[in-house]
Design brief:
heterodimer, A: 317 residues, alpha/beta, Alpha-Beta Plaits, six-stranded mixed β-sheet, 11 helices, 36% helix, elongated, B: 283 residues, mainly alpha, 71% helix
């Protein structure tokens, strides 16, 4: 399939602060593309440029073949945008909001009416449809916000941190909705600072930091870049930590890390469960008591740490 | 899949007005659903009426007013009411300033800007709704005025012209207020910035005191102030005392000067505001 979003060398500066530093993106049609990075990495700036809200200082970008700077209205006809805040009107009802956005997309009134009803049903908002948004919960607002951006059946949907500030249950609810959308063939560009969110939703992930792409691939290929699995062992007796570490070095493929406060040892390994058995045997041979042992795939947190030298959360502090 | 979406054909009024009416509808629904806001926007000018009529009223003589047309005590009240009308519609601009700052903060301006709508639509709707809201405010003020002795002395038709002129002025300053609002970093700042320029503008006019009572160097400024010509126009149209009318052209031709001022201000500030709107984003 062809690339529906193409960005080349996007640069955006705010005074001395470089928000984007030559960002390149190619998003294939019909995929969920995750733009992952800490606060201030340039995710929102990238979305603002691609949705015609902001002009880049340098570089070009197009959506569905239309240049975002030269043909903004053509771009706006094919996109939907759900930003970090629920950008819907507080005082209107859910249905009135959808009608307003439908009217402003210049859709036929009869279509807007039918499509609103369809979206309200789909997003489980029919009971609240005729109530003012002041009575809505955070999750309901986000769902209505998403419904508003879908009123014109956009080919490309931009979701800028769609679950920021939501409680875990609402987040999972919204994830389900987003997964359904993709099944319809909508291309979704999703920005998030939550690693599990990108992992859950995105087929293809771009990691950005300081306005530049630092890694790219599927969740699995990114994890492979960090290098295989992690073997985690918690010992019963902290005085045995060093003996345990020595025993694990026989099976590890890289540096074995000892965490003395948690009595935990982390060792990079390859070979899956066979290695696990081998590790347990060598610990047993060294008479080390094991409180817990686990083999886990690296998380995107590990990926971020390996790529940038800091975790996603540290950047904000 | 997007090809299946049925689009409207272009309406006769054009997309700018169509989108403006959609946004105006939204802003007016807000007004109805937040009656507190409307209540205080009415109470404030009513308090002004009562303060000026009863506190300053006796202290401000109106030179040139004919004491035979009204009993002495009510001359200042007759003089005052058009001034209050003028001040009230001028302050309507602050609603646009604060409203747009709030819309920006909520991200709804970003949402509007991502839609394929006319670029003037949001501001046309904003200014239109702000002027429309003044109809109710002027009605309540007029009733207050009638209760304290203000009268319409020159026929219904002229009174209608007076009200239309006031609404046109409200619409005009709403564009200035919109332009300011789009530069505001947050609604709190907008609250102050939306009002700060209005105090000198309305007080350096004939709204509350006759221009002849001002220092000589201030008089030309007050005579060329569009608020002065608006207030003088409505005094003439309502048949209220005007005080001594100055020699400057705007004072001699107040209605023409008011219309020209509105046209010029809209021609300057509407494009400036739309230009700013097209570049603005939430912070």
């Amino acid at each position: 399939m062809s690339d529906i979003i193409v960005a080349e060398g996007l640069v955006k500066k705010y005074g001395d602060v470089v928000a984007l530093d030559g960002l390149d993106l190619r998003v294939p049609e019909g995929t969920v593309y995750g733009l992952l990075g800490p606060n201030g990495a340039g995710k929102t700036t990238a979305v603002r440029i691609l949705t015609t809200l902001l002009e880049p200082d340098a570089g070009t970008a197009s959506v569905d073949g239309f240049n975002v700077v030269k043909q903004p209205n053509a771009v706006r006809r094919v996109i939907g945008l759900t930003g970090q805040y629920a950008a819907v009107d507080e005082y209107l009802t859910g249905r009135e909001n959808l009608r307003m956005f439908g009217d402003l997309y210049h859709l036929q009134p009869a279509y807007v009416k039918a499509r609103s009803q369809e979206l309200l049903e789909r997003f489980d908002l029919t009971d609240a449809a005729d109530r003012s948004l002041r009575t809505y919960s955070g999750g309901m607002r986000r769902r209505l916000d998403l419904a508003a951006s879908l009123i014109a059946k956009p080919r490309v949907l931009f979701l800028d941190e769609p679950t920021t500030g939501l409680d875990p249950r609402s987040r999972i609810g919204l994830w389900e909705v987003i997964k359904d959308l993709v099944a319809d063939g909508t291309t979704v560009l999703l920005t998030t600072q939550y690693l599990d969110e990108a992992d859950q939703l995105a087929e293809e992930i771009v990691v950005i930091d300081h306005g530049r792409v630092i890694a790219q691939g599927t969740s699995d290929t990114l994890k492979d870049q960090v290098g295989g699995d992690r073997l985690e062992v918690v010992v019963e007796d902290p005085t045995q930590l060093d003996e345990a570490a020595t025993a694990l070095r026989t099976v590890a493929t890289g540096e074995v890390k000892v965490d003395r406060t948690d009595h935990r040892i982390v060792a990079p390994v390859v070979g899956g469960s066979l290695t696990l058995v081998e590790a347990v045997r060598s610990l047993d041979a060294a008479h080390v008591g094991i409180a817990d042992v686990a083999l886990r795939r690296p998380t995107l947190d590990d990926v971020f740490l390996a790529l940038t030298g800091h975790t996603a959360e540290e950047e904000q502090a | 899949m997007s090809s299946a979406v049925p689009m409207r054909s272009r309406p006769i009024i054009g997309w700018g007005l169509h989108d403006g009416l959609v946004v105006a509808r939204r802003n007016l629904i807000q007004t109805i659903r937040v009656p507190e806001l409307l209540f205080f926007s009415i109470v404030q000018p009513v308090i002004f009426v009562l303060l000026f009529a009863f506190v300053f009223g006796g202290a401000i003589p109106i030179p040139g007013a004919d004491p035979t047309t009204a009993p002495d005590a009510s001359i200042y009240r007759q003089y005052l009411m058009p001034g209050i009308f003028g001040q009230t519609v001028a302050f309507a601009s602050a609603a646009a300033t604060v409203g747009l700052a709030e819309d920006m903060k909520r991200g709804i301006i970003d949402r509007f800007r991502s839609l394929p709508m006319a670029s003037g639509g949001v501001l046309i709707g904003r200014t239109f709704a702000d002027a429309t809201r003044q109809i109710l405010v002027l009605f309540v003020l007029s009733v207050t005025g009638l209760l304290i002795g203000w009268r319409i002395n020159d026929g219904v038709l002229n009174a209608i012209y007076a009200y239309l002129l006031l609404l046109l002025f409200a619409y005009t300053v709403a564009w200035i207020g919109s332009w300011i609002g789009l530069y505001m970093p947050n609604p709190e700042t907008a609250q102050t910035a939306g009002l700060v320029w209005l105090f000198p503008l309305t007080f350096l006019s004939n709204a509350f005191v006759p221009i002849t009572a001002m220092p000589a160097w201030l008089q030309p400024i007050a005579q060329w102030n569009p608020i002065s010509s608006l207030v003088l126009s409505t005094r003439e149209l309502f048949g209220n005392p005007t005080g001594i009318v100055g020699d400057a052209w705007p004072q001699q031709n107040p209605i023409a000067y008011t219309l020209i001022s509105c046209a010029v201000l809209i021609a300057v500030f509407a494009p400036l505001a739309v230009r700013r709107y097209r570049r603005t984003t939430a912070r």
